[in-house]
Amino acid sequence: MTPQLDNDGKLRHLLTLEGLSRETICGLLDRAGNIRDAAMGRTQKRSTLCGTTICTLFFEPSTRTRSSFQIAAQRLGADVINFDASTSSARKGETALDTLKNLEAMGVRGFIVRHPEDGAVQMLSEHAGEGTTVVNAGDGRSAHPTQGLLDVLTLRQAKGPDFSRLKVLLVGDVKHSRVARSDLHALRTLGVGEIRVCGPAALLPDDETLAGCVSGDDFDAMLQGVDAVMMLRLQRERMEEGLVASLDHYHRDFGLTEARLRLAAPDAVVLHPGPINRGVEITDEVADGPQSLVLRQVSNGVAIRMAVLEALLG
Ligand code: CP
User: Fold this and answer.
1) Maximum Cα–Cα distance for the chain, whole Å?
2) Top mutation candidate among 59, 65, 176, 234 for ligand 1, by most atoms within 8 Å of CB
3) What are phi and psi of 278, to 5 degrees?
4) Three-state DSSP class for 111?
5) Does residue 210 carry a pLDDT above 90?
6) CB 97 within 8 A of CB 123
7) Which residues contact 267 (CB under 8 A, 6 or more apart)?
8) What DSSP designation does 6 have?
């Protein structure tokens, strides 16, 4: 039994997309699509989570994930507290588990957790009390499941529900990217026709992460005819020295420019999870251009997080 499912096979926590059924993933995408107006604040706040207190428990920085979870929870009527590790007793050495247990003792029932260590969020979920739900907002290099969901929702809106006819290319620092792992889990489960992965050899993992993918370091060749280009951020905070010769070299070999994008299918779309290192992974012209879905991804983040909170806590 996956630790995120209860005895009836229902989602109790959301830790990873690995092993989640197509039905569960599509159910969350459908729900997010149906509540888009509410997610954009165009309708009255809902009361689904009225009386529920949710804490965003972040031990790493965030702009998009934290804000969109907060907005999603508030639009469902929840009370939200934002825990900031840098101004908390974590600075005095209190552990993440003690922090969760203390907040739980105050009646917090939903924890949205980001942590730099692989597996830390699962560990917290295993120690959470009965009736407490934990959502992984990114742990180490392992998983960022709501990012994976919002990415495939964005792709589905742009390209339709038949993923089997799509060629999708992931580019960049796959080795250190939890987004890449969650994207790959979702893309495989939804049956994408061809998944290509491109990056410097030093930034491509040599384990089962790339199973079933076509991988290589020739960006121009990999771009030929793809329907979607999913760019990844260089995770410099998780990288040993020397894996990338220089940012200029990286941009020369793996930066997405307008000229390079013309190698993809004419109606190809470009995604990037943010934050963007402009001029490194992607030029301004592409990031802000007509084929970019970057801000659509951000909007979809609120809808996906509403769907997830509703499914887990509603
Ligand atoms: N995509 C993403 O996780 O962004 P943040 O780090 O700003 O949350």
Assistant:
1) 56
2) 65
3) -65, 135
4) strand
5) yes
6) yes
7) 227, 291
8) -
Flag whether pLDDT at 1 surpasses 60.
no
- Cα–Cα distance measured from residue 106 to residue 247, given in angstroms and rounded to the nearest whole number: 46
Cβ atoms of 189 and 202 closer than 8 Å: no
Q: Is the CB of 74 under 6 A from ligand 1?
A: no
How far, in Å, CA of 293 to CA of 228, rounded? 10
145 Cα–ligand 1 center, Å? 12
Q: Which tens digit of pLDDT belongs to each residue from 165-185?
A: 999 999 999 999 999 999 999
The rounded Å distance from CA 223 to ligand 1 centre is 25
CA neighbor of 145 nearest in space, from 54, 233, 36, 20? 20
Label residue 244 by pLDDT band (50, 70, 90). Answer: confident
Closest atom of ligand 1 relative to the 138 alpha carbon: 3
What pLDDT is stored for residue 239 in this prediction?
Answer: 66
Domains of the chain are: 22-144+298-313 (3.40.50.1370), 146-293 (3.40.50.1370)
Residue 274 alpha carbon, nearest atom of ligand 1:
1
Amino acid at 37: D
Helix boundaries (H) for the chain: 22-34, 36-39, 64-75, 96-105, 120-127, 145-159, 178-189, 219-223, 247-254, 258-261, 284-287, 294-313
Confidence of residue 246 (pLDDT cuts 50, 70, 90): confident
pTM of the model: 0.96
Residue whose Cα lies nearest atom 3 of ligand 1: it is: 65
pLDDT tens-digit readout, 52-91: 999 999 999 999 999 999 999 999 999 999 998 889 999 9
Q: What is the pLDDT of residue 53?
A: 98
Match 């893309």 to its residue by tokens: 187
Higher per-residue pLDDT: 43 or 169: 169
